[in-house]
C-alpha cells in the first residue's frame, strides 16, 4: 500500500489517500474531488480548473497522468 496526498495528485489539500494501485489512488482522488466540488470548496475548484485545462490537450493530460503513475510506483510501500 502507498500513500499520496490530494496536492500530489493535482488537488488542493493535504488529505492522504492510501491505495495498492495507482488506479485505486486515482479513483479516491476523483471521489474526493467530487465531494469538494459539491461543497463548493474554492481551493479545490481552482485545482479542478487547472486540471480541466490539462484535459483540453490529450498529450498534456497523458504526460501528466503518466508522471503521476510513475511517482506512485516509485513511492516506498507504507509500513
- Fraction in helix: 55-70%
- Which of globular, elongated, flat, extended, rod-shaped describes the shape? globular
Q: What's the mean pLDDT score?
A: 94
**What radius of gyration results from the CA coordinates?**
13 Å
What's the helix count?
3
Total discrete domains: 1
Instruction: Bin the strand percentage.
Output: 5-15%
Largest sheet: 2 strands, antiparallel
Number of strands: 2
Spatial order of the strands forming the largest sheet? 1-2
* Structural classification: mainly alpha
Low-confidence stretches: none
End-to-end distance: 8 Å
Q: Identify the quaternary structure here.
A: single chain
Order of helices and strands: EEHHH
Write the layout of secondary structure elements.
Elements: E1 2-5, E2 16-19, H1 22-38, H2 42-55, H3 58-74
Antiparallel strand pairs: 1-2
Features:
globular; 3 helices; 79 residues; two-stranded antiparallel ribbon; 2 strands; 61% helix; mainly alpha
Fold and architecture overview:
The protein is mainly alpha-helical and 79 residues long. It has one domain (2-74). The protein is built from 3 helices and 2 strands. It has helices at 22-38, 42-55, 58-74; strands spanning 2-5, 16-19. Strands 1-2 form a two-stranded antiparallel sheet. The longest helix is centred in the middle third of the chain and has 17 residues, at 22-38. The radius of gyration is 13 Å and the shape is globular. The chain starts with a strand and ends in a 5-residue tail after the last helix.
